[in-house]
Amino acid sequence: MPKNIQIAVVGSGYVGLVAAVCFAEMGHDVICVDNDERKVKALQGGDTLIHENYLPELLQRYRNTKVRFMSDLAEATRECEAIFIAVGTPQSETGDADLSYVEAVACEIARSITSYKVIVEKSTVPVYTNEWIRRAIERNGVARDLFDVVSNPEFLREGTAVADFLHPDRIVVGADSERAAAVLGGIYAPLTEGTYYQRADAIPGSCGPTAKPPLLNTSTKSAEIIKHASNAFLAVKISFINAVANLCEATDANVEQVAIGMGMDARIGPKFLRPGIGYGGSCFPKDVAAFRSVAEQLGLDFSMLSEVEKINENQKKRFLSKVRTALWTLRGKKLGVLGLAFKGETDDIRESPAIDLVEMFLAEGCSIKAFDPAAMERTAERLPAGPKLSYVESAYAAADDADALLILTDWAEFATLDLKRLNTTLRYPIVIDGRNLYDPHVMLENGLTYISVGRPSAI
Ligand code: NAD
């Protein structure tokens, strides 16, 4: 029978909050700490603040009982055996990860350690960070045998974060001490022993009732590198298929067929071979830059990653050229925009290629009516509505009287629009799809000129 462990999670953002409620769902008692008092109050009151499936239900179930929210890290440290650091590690001006939030938390934890603690890096951090955390804690006067630092990288995807957390492909625990590895093993036991999946009320996901996701024990440094290398590799895959898509466009081939043919090779696999307007979000851009920076600091050439970034940036410019080619000139054109979030099913707009494109089209003199099911409020804080930019309440309102409709985010609901209605709503029946959500033949049958990525256009 897995045992109940007292856990503190520091940071209540996309990772910290999801981890906190999921640990409670696995049976543990959790204190979730954030230094943003406004967030703490909102979470205590049941407001999740972010759009994530299953989060409202789990928060409602556990808030103020199995998950307590507070800003007092000292109290959380005293009460808990394992302390997960899940604060931001944004990109600094030089490209490497800004670890000042992690350092601040490590020093604050150190001041309250009086019994053995496992300090867990959940944030994505460069290799050697565990050593810096250890040094910071020791410098604050804590004896070496009173704590261990462990790396337990998080692989969840926004939009499916709760299901990903509870149904992981793998759990990586980088620990250089058996005692710390055992604590982490105990925390994840409901998943690795499969007891969670036998529950009738388990959150559904990829693991069935007999599943037991693997837990990989590694050194702390290997675990840190696993996270950066995984994200960098996924970015490579996206830029690779985008470059292939461009080649398909130049040769009238179809990237969808090419991706299926490539993906049937078990060594390649079918996932992450979808071309588009480039990757974005709070992870891939900064993690690729940070990984390249780590290599540079070690005197190693990883310039392959610079090419990946270059292809990613060009993908937005190519999309803009496609719209220009379809509309002849851009100044004064009215565009309907579907999608502002960096991907579907989330309200996160950090490094969103959709927003970059909105800014690029505004700079070209276009006017834009934009719709996103969850990200409009956040976008309006960054790009306030004005004479050239408005936020509307539906996809059809965005299309209304537009010279063209642009699909920039892969929300599931954008793939099932009423095409006949779209045709009559648009001023000109032109759809330029940066996410390949539609079959070009179906668009043609509905009288729409359809331009997508790496596939022959339907005109
Ligand atoms: P986030 O910005 O949504 O949340 C970070 C939280 O930490 C904020 O609520 C902030 O107020 C809080 N915080 C900052 N300093 C603090 C302090 N001193 N004490 C207490 N709280 C503090 O960030 P996120 O998206 O959850 O990402 C967190 C980490 O996880 C990053 O390293 C990121 O790279 C990594 N990660 C993110 C994802 C993702 O999809 N978002 C996936 C895997 C890993």
From TrEMBL:
Reactions accelerated catalytically: UDP-alpha-D-glucose + 2 NAD(+) + H2O = UDP-alpha-D-glucuronate + 2 NADH + 3 H(+)
GO molecular function list: NAD binding; UDP-glucose 6-dehydrogenase activity
Keyword field: NAD, Oxidoreductase
Active site, per annotation: C283 (nucleophile)
EC numbers for this chain: 1.1.1.22
Transmembrane segments: none
One Gene Ontology term from the biological process aspect of the record: UDP-glucuronate biosynthetic process
PANTHER family (UniProt xref): UDP-GLUCOSE 6-DEHYDROGENASE TUAD
Entry protein name: UDP-glucose 6-dehydrogenase
Organism the protein comes from: Granulicella pectinivorans
Lineage of producing organism: Bacteria, Pseudomonadati, Acidobacteriota, Terriglobia, Terriglobales
